[in-house]
Amino acid sequence: MNEQVIAVPAGPSRQSELQTTVFRPNGAGPFPLLIINHGKESGEPRKQTRERFIYMATAFVKRGYAVLVPMRRGFAGSTGNYADHGCNMTANGHAQASDVLDTIDFARRQSWVDSARIVVAGQSYGGLATIALGTRDVPGVRGLINFAGGLRDDADRCDWRAQLVQAFANYGAGNRIPSLWMYGVNDSLFGPDLVARMHAAFERAGGKARLVEFGAFKRDAHGMIASRDGAGIWWRETERFLQQIGMPTSEVVAVADAPTVPKTDFARVDDIAAVPYLSEKGRAAYREYLHKMTPRAFAVSPSGAWCWAEEGEDPHARALAACARTSGQPCQLYSVDDYVVWQGKLASSSTVADSGGAGTGSL
Questions:
Q1: Residue 249: inside a domain, yes or no?
Q2: Any keyword Hydrolase (predicted)?
Q3: Considering only CA atoms, which of 290, 326, 325, 296 is closest in space to residue 310?
Q4: Residue 43 belongs to some domain of the structure
Q5: Which candidate, 68, 56, 99, places its Cα nearest to that of 4?
Q6: What does the alpha-carbon distance between residue 234 and residue 214 come to, in Å, rounded to a whole number?
Q7: Which of 109, 179, 301, 336 is the Cys-Cys partner for 327 at CB 3.0 to 4.6 Å?
Q8: What is the Cα–Cα distance from 234 to 223, expressed in whole angstroms?
Q9: One domain for residues 289 and 239
Q10: Which helix (H) or strand (E) segment is 88 a member of?
């Protein structure tokens, strides 16, 4: 995947830098380009972790694309200030889209990017920014993909749903780039009624967008594209859209699978009594873990500390990292997904923090 993290100049006079993850095939290119725009978690944007969208990025690198995932100003390791326009959802989308536009301008100047074949995607707040970008004439951008796009006002200061509908109407009036929209029926932020209103407002104002409403995805469709299992939902419609806008869809690059933790014969995964080091509280936590979504992982320590992680990227690394924070001794994975990986001794492991469900505890 040739992953690297670079700084992309952005903002007025290009005084800010966007922490941007790059994935690309081997070779000099030029490669068609996908830009993926992230959402906003609750809380301080600077505390948000760097997004990778590894599953979607992998699918596109296999098809010969370079992929950029920029963290916008004020998020994660990017400099500059986060732009907050409160309940003015139209302004919020345009403010975030300006960083996306700066990323595109940067990419078009790189020799390894095919500046005439670009597609822009976004999830949640990134989806809102992506559709806002579509009001501008952006050379080389052939299509936009909106995954669960929108923005919720956590403070409930206004009728943010009505403001979202108005924002999409405003974007529809200025729309210049075709788009694909994908929302699930069990999206925790933007339910089917709101999605129907947003899409209708966009099209009535003159926008061009095809809406795909898929069924329930796990507990919450809002995080579908960040899930290992999401490609089974999004790829078929995305492939159709890419073909319509003249972008490649055939696999042309071999990408090695991520290393897996080998299964052992120590015990059945549901044999709670076999898990070492745990107190009764820890065994109750493991019983709960057995009902978590895959991908998932459970880590333990001789100190009695434990942690589980589910969904998102690298749950086994996240479980180890969280366990290490609560334990005075090393931690090791006990189980991954639906099988036991315990080897009867502690082994060293690198850890990577990332988003997703988790639980921690100790004696």
A1: no
A2: yes
A3: 296
A4: yes
A5: 68
A6: 9
A7: 301
A8: 12
A9: no
A10: none
d(CA 214, CA 90) in angstroms, rounded, equals 26
- Which tens digits make up the pLDDT trace of 143-153? 999 999 999 98
Report helix, strand or coil for 358: strand
How far is Cα 82 from Cα 45, in angstroms, rounded to an integer?
Answer: 7
Q: How far is CA 195 from the centre of its chain?
A: 20
Element (H, E) at 211: strand 209-214
| pLDDT tens column, 54-107 | 999 999 999 999 999 999 999 999 999 999 999 999 999 999 999 999 999 999
Q: Are residues 235 and 292 in the same domain?
A: no
What is the per-residue DSSP string for 22-59?
Answer: EE--SSS--EEEEEEE----SS-GGGSPPP--HHHHHH
Q: Does residue 265 fall inside a structural domain?
A: no
How far apart CA 277 and CA 360 sit, in angstroms, is 14
Taking CA atoms, 265 is separated from 95, 152, 338, in Å, by 54, 47, 13
- Tell me whether residue 121 is in a domain: yes
Contact 78, 18 (CB under 8 A): yes
The total number of residues shown for the chain amounts to 363
CB 307 within 8 Å of CB 275: no
Q: How many CB atoms lie within 10 A of CB 327?
A: 21
The two three-digit tokens of residue 101, written as one number: 């536009």
pLDDT in tens, 130-144: 999 999 989 999 999
